[in-house]
Amino acid sequence: MTGLVGYLVTGLGIGAGFALVGSGLVVIYRVTRVVNFAQGALAVLAAMLTASLLSAGLPHGVAETLGVLAGAAAGLLVGVVAIGRPGTAPGASLIVTLGLGLLAYAVEILVWGDQPRSFPGLGGAVELAGARVQVHYLLIVAVTVPVFGCLALFFARTDLGKALSACASNPYAARVVGIDVRRMGLLSFALGGALGGLAGVLTTPVQQVTFDSDVALIVNGFAAAVLGGLTRPGVALAGGLLLGVAQTVVAGYGGGAYRLEVALVVLLAVMIAHAVRTPPAQEAAA
């Protein structure tokens, strides 16, 4: 029982990181209908930069903030390349993001090398129901949940958030009322980059990051996002937490080598269930 409690709390912390990556995918997809396969690379970029800034002597808080801002800037750059040209089809933009994600490998190896990196997070451990848990896992959850609350308020209460939601609901109607849909798409890429960057900054103290860590991040983030049909950030949060707990429990009792397989099985099951529920006519129209 003690071990299970520890796995649950640890899994919630890891799953919160997946949820942040997944919510970035959701924010971008809602507005542009593009799946940003470079999302994992943005998390790696922010984590690597934060590690370098801390090594250079910048204080905690400043380095992490700059890392998240770098993720947002890189996300905006991906958006400019992927959807900046008017009339670019979502399928073509998706391929562009995949190519940019691969390009990020070369850039990260060139700048930071191929060795894993990490940096210290919130130290110490607490005892919960007899299980000792690193405090940093609790910090990840404590940061992630308010971030999702702020996202909900942003989309529901601010003019900018409502403009993004309008583009997601009906791009044509949004254009008619004067909303620049392309600019909103670029904003969604920047917001998605910031969320991915935050995931990288929060999870690196408990999980070392390498240039190819984006594969696991994008697979798990995509699985969390797909649970909500790529349109509901709240469901992506629940999906990410569920995925993190499932992987941690499987790793704890069955071995850590099967973590990615858990995400792939969940992803496959959700996509099959979605295909079964979708009427053939609607599928053809989509």
Automatic annotation (TrEMBL):
Keywords: Amino-acid transport, Cell membrane, Membrane, Transmembrane, Transmembrane helix, Transport. Its main location: membrane. The keyword Transmembrane helix applies. The keyword Translocase does not apply. GO terms for cellular component: plasma membrane. GO terms for biological process: amino acid transport. This is Branched-chain amino acid transport system permease protein. It comes from the Bacteria. InterPro entries: ABC_transp_permease, BCAA_transport_permease. It holds the Pfam family BPD_transp_2. It is found in: Cell membrane. The chain crosses the membrane at residues 6-29, 41-59, 65-84, 91-113, 133-156, 184-202, 222-245, 257-276. Belongs to the binding-protein-dependent transport system permease family. LivHM subfamily. GO terms for molecular function: transmembrane transporter activity. It is a multi-pass membrane protein. CDD domains: TM_PBP1_LivH_like.
